[in-house]
Amino acid sequence: MSMLFAETLKRLRMEKGLSQRELAGRMYVTRSTVARWESGSRLPDAAMISRLSQGLGVDVNTLLSAAAVSDESPNVIMVDDRKIILSGGLPVLEAVMPNATITGFTRPSEAIEYAKANRIALAFLDIELGKTSGLELCQALLEINPRTNVVYLTAYSEYAIDAWSTGASGFMLKPITPEGVRAQLKNLRYPFSSGGAGA
Description:
5-stranded parallel beta sheet, 16% strand, alpha/beta, single chain
């Protein structure tokens, strides 16, 4: 979450001489909700930010701009059983999504374990992954987090029909290119800020 927002909110509240409980009373939320906002573990939505600005007597843009600067980096994974594909693709993903944490895996089981411990915003999956297919891995990832965006990677266009039936956001033919990744980012089911130009 945005620590800049958390610090800004706490500073403004203290400048007004309000306790967390008093601010919570003005906002019709619990004190623990305000505490979470100020710890950076939660970020209020735009409507609540507008109410906060009124309650604190500050310009709403002060809070909105602080909320927009988030130091949370979305987790993006790439799964391909060929190391050479990973080594070529990961730098492309990092260039296009500089704010994201990019992690590569050659084994689907490792990607699943990572997804259980980390919220995955976007997964680039090879369709042919040895014994496990990317289609099966997609289903496993969506069971862990239904809001994971999945883009399939393959050298074979005939997989496209099967790929679309799995709830994926997109489909890319190898090799990965910056232009191809940017095009996929525009069509995600669950968009997120990746920090890249045009993303």
